[in-house]
């Protein structure tokens, strides 16, 4: 089992390095934006990118996941045939969607309540969607072939170009909001150019209608689930805009982005997780392996949640050249950060528990799960925002992710039952609750940072006392640290 976990960890680490560095570079744009844009301007950016997230689902219509499934098994065609069918399908449809968006620009501008002077934003948005969709299948092929390093480098180039263009256009040329979207389309276009050699190498002009139909049948059911998934992630911005104003959306977005470190863990894990589950699904210990992954992954996310919850106030007050990491105009939203982090924790658990759905080709279960969670999110946003403002939006998202995790577990157990280590997870939950409550209850302002660090140590000590860690795991960790070798993990 250790070797399998090690392979998952290695791929996750490589994807993670690019994701961490890339997201960190992107995260640097948050303090940059908060210091050069007013909350209302940042709110417009957040609003449009939330709409782009929804449009991406329609542009991709599940073809990426369908390609990973059929190319990994080659049950209805070779890998190149799968690549060509998926790539050409997305290329043709995304071009048609983009042309339609451009022709509809005047109508969209009015219906989205965008300022009259932001007319070009619709064109930039259409271009970003086109290039990102064209790049999706080539990136999926890199994941399937476990070319994680190349994948990582291309992602990093994309982000470096994006960040560099942002700085150039906003600082030097004073392009404001428009500069952000120009940066997005340029970085996406550069990425497609870099992927072009691999595209040409794998593209074959060979008609396979049966394969294309199978890809569509597998992928299309994911559209409702994908839209619902986007609703879970970004529907709070449009609702918040409708019930408050652009400035509130901007403050909310800046603080929501402070959950980046938890988001990074979920994102980089998901990149490696789907190819991994397909590769080990037929092995005898697969279910035991998946259960153990949930325990370890939840432990890692819980630790990150605890550290960030305790120290986020200190992080945002870090000063660079006379400017705080996050401008003071945005500090009123800091209270949402722990709620956002906890939401990502439950999202990560749902992602891990979804393995059986993909293994058993039961993707039709995804729509009811995510649609139910999205309905909870939308309803909770409408109810809570008028009462709690942006904090209500954060709690609505948390509630939706909890529902998503619970429903994923229930559905998966029906088709691919697994014995998760709920006893260990319960111990983890009780310990982190005790530590968080204790930290909030004790007033230690004179030694606040030291006390918080002490509580992190208490967290690990309590885990040891309740015997969360198994003896074999402690020995494995010791051997990895001391000699760089692993010990097999016993159940």
Any overview of this molecule?
- α11 runs parallel beside α18 (366-388).
- The chain is mainly alpha-helical.
- It has helices at residues 2-27, 29-36, 39-60, 63-73, 79-103, 105-111, 120-144, 148-172, 177-202, 209-219, 222-234, 236-243, 246-256, 260-280, 286-316, 337-353, 355-359, 366-388, 390-415, 422-441, 448-465, 471-483; strands spanning 319-320, 323-324.
- The chain has 22 helices and two strands.
- It starts with a helix and ends in an 8-residue tail after the last helix.
- The protein has a two-stranded antiparallel sheet with strand order 1-2.
- A hairpin with a 2-residue loop joins β1 and β2.
- The chain folds into three domains: 1-30 and 250-420, no CATH class; 62-219, no CATH class; 442-491, no CATH class.
